[in-house]
Write a structure and sequence with these properties.
Layout (H helix, E strand, L loop, with lengths): L5 E7 L32 E6 L7 H4 L2 E3 L19 E6 L2 E5 L5 E5 L5 E5 L30 E8 L5 E4 L6 H8 L17 E8 L2 E7 L26 E7 L9 H15 L1 H4 L3 E6 L7 H12 L5 E3 L8 H39 L5
Parallel strand pairs: 1-3, 2-4, 9-11, 9-12, 12-13, 13-14
Antiparallel strand pairs: 1-8, 2-7, 5-6, 5-8, 10-11
Subcellular location: Cytoplasm
Family: Belongs to the TRAFAC class OBG-HflX-like GTPase superfamily. OBG GTPase family.
GO molecular function, one term: magnesium ion binding
């Protein structure tokens, strides 16, 4: 099954124009010297991140892109015109890899960020480059070089600060509707969510974060069961995962503790780095429990959880405000740590460069 957050395309940079072999044939110089110009360079293919684009759906229908060829050279030492570059716009958060080697080439994570993926071929040389004292009338010229060709795999990883993880019907979509202006489809049956949803949670006037709701994960997802594994990639950029668990399942035969452990195991199988991300336990639908405090304590004990725990009701809003403020604080602290680490690294680089310039030995 294919989704609009991935696409495979072929790109062809423009070939260079050919050089020409011509000679000056003017009224007073009927046997003039060489005057053949060079061919123009072929157009390159550039990919640019654009925040106004949300999906890769356009690249599912048009799969081949070819830049303009450079013009051939002309007489009177006129150079051929350069082929026009082709700019392909993709959503912010698109990761581009070489299809054959599966090597990542570039990660376009900022609006306006550009990457030249295929370079146009150089133009051929006209015969003016081959004249010498021994060869006054060269007839040599060269053809333009072919442009680069690549098959690319485009993969969109949404730029969210927080990711929601959980079984189908855990209440992820209801939660994102409760705390943000996003309106994902909500229904009382599994697999309502078929594609990722993003919501901006505004805590204060100048404080907000982005939360991602992906299709529910089921046991066996890492081996390809269900839909959720297709979208686990969207959690890769998040700094925090919220593991939502339905502690009041409609079917009494369902064991919430078993399901919670199964989800985490699928996460570990899929990606160890994702598994090691900070993760909070969010127990949902406590409004449906008469003794919610006792149920929460029993669940945490049976699950063996030692991290942060929040008990909420996404549909009635109980505990949601406290959770969003805690998330905002975590994101700000995490950003501060990242900025400090980057600053320390920059200072270390500057210090090392200064020591080298002064002739000091760098250990």
């Amino acid at each position: 099954m294919k989704f609009i957050d991935e696409a495979t395309i072929k790109i062809y940079a423009g070939d260079g124009g050919n050089g020409v072999a011509t000679f000056r044939r003017e009224k007073y110089e009927p046997m003039g010297g060489p005057s053949g110009g060079d061919g123009g360079r072929g157009g390159s293919i550039i990919i640019e991140a654009d925040r106004n684009i949300n999906t890769l759906v356009d690249y599912r229908y048009t799969r081949s892109f070819r830049a303009e060829r450079g013009e051939n050279g002309r007489s009177a030492e006129c150079y051929g015109a350069k082929g026009e570059d082709m700019i392909l716009r993709v959503p912010v958060g698109t990761v581009i890899s070489d299809k054959s080697s599966e090597q990542m080439l570039v990660d376009l994570s900022e609006h306006g960020q550009r990457a030249q993926m295929a370079t146009g071929g150089k133009g051929g040389l006209g015969n003016v480059h081959f004249k010498s004292s021994l060869n006054r009338a060269p007839r040599q010229c060269t053809k333009g070089e072919p442009g680069e060709e690549l098959e690319l795999y485009l993969e969109l990883k949404v730029l969210a600060d927080v990711g929601l993880l959980g079984m189908p019907n855990a209440g992820k979509s209801t939660f994102i509707r409760s705390v943000s202006a996003a309106k994902p489809k909500v229904a009382d049956y599994p697999f309502t969510t078929l594609h990722p949803n993003l919501g901006v949670v505004r805590v204060d006037a100048e404080r907000s974060f982005v939360i991602a709701d992906i299709p529910g994960i089921i046991e066996g997802a890492a081996e390809g069961a269900g839909l959720g594994h297709q979208f686990l990639r969207h959690l890769a950029r998040t700094s925090l995962l919220l593991h939502l668990v339905d502690v009041a399942p409609f079917d009494e035969a369902v064991d919430p503790v078993y399901e919670a452990k199964a989800i985490v195991e699928e996460l570990r199988k899929y990606d160890e780095a994702l598994y090691n991300k900070p993760r909070w336990l969010v127990l949902n639908k406590i409004d449906m429990l008469p003794e919610s405090k006792q149920v929460v304590e029993n669940f945490v004990k049976a699950y063996g959880w030692e991290g942060r725990v929040f008990a909420i009701s996404a549909i009635s809003g109980i505990g949601c405000k406290e959770l969003t403020y805690a998330i905002m604080q975590h994101i700000e602290e995490n950003k501060q740590h990242v900025d400090e680490a980057a600053e320390n690294k920059q200072e270390a680089v500057v210090s090392t460069a200064a020591d080298k310039e002064a002739g000091n030995e760098v250990v």
